[in-house]
Write a structure and sequence with these properties.
By secondary structure, the protein is mostly helical. The chain is 74% helix and 1% strand. The protein contains 20 helices and 2 strands. The radius of gyration is 21 Å and the shape is globular.
Length: 476
Amino acid sequence: MEITEILGKINEFFYSYVLIIVLVGAGLFFTIKTKFIQFRLIPDMFRLLTEKATINSNGKIGISSFQAFTISAASRIGTGNIAGVATAIALGGPGAVFWMWIIALIGGASSLIESTLAQVYKVKDRHGFRGGPAYYMEKGLNKRWMGILFAVVITLTYGFVFNAVQANTITIAFEESFGINRIVLGIILSLLTAIIVFGGLKRIVHVTQVIVPVMAIVYIGVALVVVFMNITEIPHVIMLIVKSAFGLEEAFSGMVGAAVMNGIKRGLFSNEAGMGSAPNAAATAAVSHPVKQGLIQTLGVFIDTIFVCSSTAAIVLLSDAYLQADAASINLTQLSLADNLGDWSSIFLAIAILMFAYSTIIGNYYYGETNIGFIKESKTALTVFRILAVAFVMFGSVAKVKFVWDLADLFMAIMALINLVAILMLWKVAKPVIYDYLDQRKKGLDPVFNKNNVPHIGEVECWDDEEITLKDEQSM
């Protein structure tokens, strides 16, 4: 049996039984317990995007909510939104899109919890703050072994495997549109990645806060053009998605299981809700209350799936290309866009995927770096990690599509399971932190958190009164 067959069978077990129960179960648990907070506080999410970073007692300005948002968005918004959605439709039919939506809506609550906890248990470093699941497993659960396990898995997943997927998609898209040799492009990508990853977090922030908003707006804009050109077909597309999700569409009646599994796979890969990745970016923000960054990251889940992924779904389903047996991944989206807008659009998409995927490589790298620091502060280990991260970009550039995606699915499932168990165990901490935020909002206050307000919180390094100077003071 080939390795791709083995990976396929393992993934089928995870996504058909184990992960779907834990992922959906945790999402529903947090949704009900927080009284649908991911929907109730949507206005707060948008308001907080413009909030300035706090400054600490030493006068240093931290990373703002928006900057932390763009780091996580750089990882979220990538090939999963363009190639991943197309793959989900090719393998699971239009109904897979519906299950991507459901995973995002339910997972929004899990995303809020994990990013709130990342803020609670963040630690100081020379750049400002860092944190994530490994840190709240150690400090909140007193289980350093669990934190090290997660740190190893996320470093392998994001630093290596996911970046191989991004590079793979870029080289395929450019080979399709320009006939550029994948090895040559892989070398170029590797060099560009090396320039950024050896430059540190501040360089990552400066790159992502420019690239991510621009590329997302342009891509959604192109999708809207396609939608308006086919506006009369939109009700049919929506009905096709919903009917196919439950096997009510005759052409896809036998694909319910495939729709669910591929919707969950590609939905989780794209929006990362509950997977334990975004909290690493969330922890870097200098905010006055942990829940603020939890809300920001939840907004990221919604933007990723409801807007960006739906844009790709519209492009694909408003063409007949998805019915072709050999159309999948990025080439399906390229064919679909060309059907709607002409051959020039295939070139546009190749450039768009370069921007999406390259920014994702940058965001993914940071997740690995912060977890290397958790395991052991070592310049040698960090240098080795950086070299290997660049090497995997080269590997992904020339590897087979199915192998890199199957490998990504396996590591993603393992990572999500570890994190979901941890945040369920830490609900006892997240709950009072959330209610502290809500109580202050009801009183008309700008919420400010103090660790002494939450009993049995565990080992918390930050959140003393003297450590936070509110943004209002910054402008005085």
